[in-house]
Design goal:
This protein is an alpha/beta fold and about 350 residues long. It has two domains: about 5-145 and about 310-340, Quinone Oxidoreductase, Chain A, domain 1 (Alpha-Beta Complex), CATH 3.90.180; about 150-290, Rossmann fold, CATH 3.40.50. The chain has helices spanning about 40-50, 100, 140-145, 150-160, 180-190, 200-210, 225-230, 250-255, 275-280, 295-305, 320-330, and strands spanning about 5, 15-20, 30-40, 65-75, 85-90, 90, 110-115, 125-130, 135, 170-175, 195-200, 215-220, 235-240, 255-265, 285-290, 315-320, 335-340. The strands form four sheets. Strands 3, 4, 5, 8, 9, 16 and 17 form a seven-stranded mixed β-sheet that branches. A six-stranded parallel β-sheet has the order 12-11-10-13-14-15, with helices on both faces. A two-stranded antiparallel sheet has the order 1-2. Strand 10, helix 5 (about 180-190) and strand 11 (about 195-200) form a beta-alpha-beta unit. Helix 4 packs across helix 5 (about 180-190) and helix 4 crosses helix 10 (about 295-305). It starts with a strand and ends with a strand. The structure holds zinc ion (ZN). Zinc ion binds next to helix 2. Keywords: NADP. One of its GO terms (molecular function) is oxidoreductase activity. It holds the Pfam family ADH_zinc_N. This is Alcohol dehydrogenase zinc-binding domain protein.
């Protein structure tokens, strides 16, 4: 099959297009999907660079967010059939442990993300367990459908699961133009919250407002905690931080007493200085988020079907141009998702 193969860890040049990668064979409880589109995530960049504690064996295939058509199902599969249009829930877990059976599969001891250790969707075909296959919203194209699972699942876990967001909530979302940013702005608005976000230029700021952000701060030229406190003297209820080292403590400074910092992703580095006393005196909660329970993807998918959430696709590249797509993502020029189209 055609695939973009990661041969060595490092720059985008290590992604090589081949047309003779072995097509996966499916077990009795697995599904083979003919990939139509696969979205990029920053996770792809980390895996490509070999920058994570967990590394895949090489050659590897990246890609966590897949949409496509069911090509073949194992003999025990009942939930989908050949020809169905589907998306893939990117979280892979054992399915039988206590956490999995309690709906906390993202805490499974064997948890993996498609494209992290398992071979992902930068290919003509991908195989996953039947439990990872969900019907594609009929109102979305394949490109649009590939654009939402990982980011929306993570953001749902952050805002709804951990953050306990409600109409009363005041939320700060860093980097509103990113994949998780556009997801978080929409979801927070849908929940009725007041949304402050940050953007790196006026065009991105305008688009964040169009998505529903109530206030946009330029994170390059403005003092974010100061601006937040001009708006809300006591601070905000929830901060969504996926930037990491550069923003972590600023996020804490934006929170009101009893506020929650929900965090995942470390695009600027993974070490932060923390003043423990400041945290306990204010009863600040630090809540780590790693994707989210798979079941929430059904709720998210329904909200897309009902038109309450919208995919935000910035640019589409053909599969062969995966290295170019990575370079583009790393330049941070995008607004929303970068997607590879597979034919
Ligand atoms: Zn498990």
């Amino acid at each position: 099959m055609q695939a973009v193969v990661l041969e060595n860890f490092g720059g985008p040049e290590n992604l090589r297009y081949v047309d003779d990668f072995p097509t996966p064979s499916v077990g009795e409880d697995e599904v083979l999907i003919r990939v139509k589109a696969v979205a990029l995530n920053h996770l792809d960049v980390w895996v490509r660079m070999g920058a994570l504690a967990v590394k895949p064996s090489l050659p590897h295939i990246l890609g966590s967010d897949v949409s496509g058509i069911v090509e073949k199902v194992g003999s025990l599969v009942r939930n989908v059939k050949e020809g169905d249009e589907v998306i893939v829930a990117p979280g892979i877990s054992c399915g039988v442990c206590h956490e999995c059976q309690s709906g906390r599969d993202n805490l499974c001891k064997e948890y993996d993300i498609l494209g992290l250790r398992s071979k992902g969707g930068y290919a003509q075909y991908v195989k996953v367990h039947a439990r990872n296959v969900i019907r594609k919203p009929a109102n979305l194209s394949f490109v649009e459908a590939a654009s939402y699972p990982l980011t929306f699942l993570t953001v749902w876990n952050a805002l709804v699961g951990k953050g306990k967001i409600g109409p009363h909530s005041r939320v700060l979302i860093w980097a509103g133009s990113s994949g998780v940013g556009v997801a978080a702005i929409q979801l927070a608005k849908l929940m009725g919250a007041f949304v402050i976000t940050t953007a790196g230029n006026s065009e991105k700021a305008k688009r964040c407002r169009e998505l529903g952000a109530d206030m946009v701060i330029d994170h390059y030229t403005e003092d974010v905690p100061k601006r937040v406190r001009e708006m809300f003297k006591e601070g905000v209820d929830i901060v969504v931080d996926h930037v990491g080292e550069k923003t972590f403590w600023k996020s804490v400074e934006c929170l009101k007493k009893g506020g929650k910092l929900v965090f995942f992703g470390t695009t600027t580095g993974s070490y932060a200085h923390i003043d423990i006393r400041y945290l306990f005196v204010r009863e600040i909660e630090l809540l780590g988020v790693y994707m989210g329970p798979r079941a929430d993807l059904y709720k998210i998918t329904e909200l897309f079907e009902r038109g309450l959430l919208k995919p935000v696709v910035d640019r589409v590249f053909p599969l062969q141009e995966a290295p170019e797509a990575h370079r583009y993502l790393e330049k941070s020029l995008h607004f929303g998702k970068v997607v590879l189209k597979v034919d």
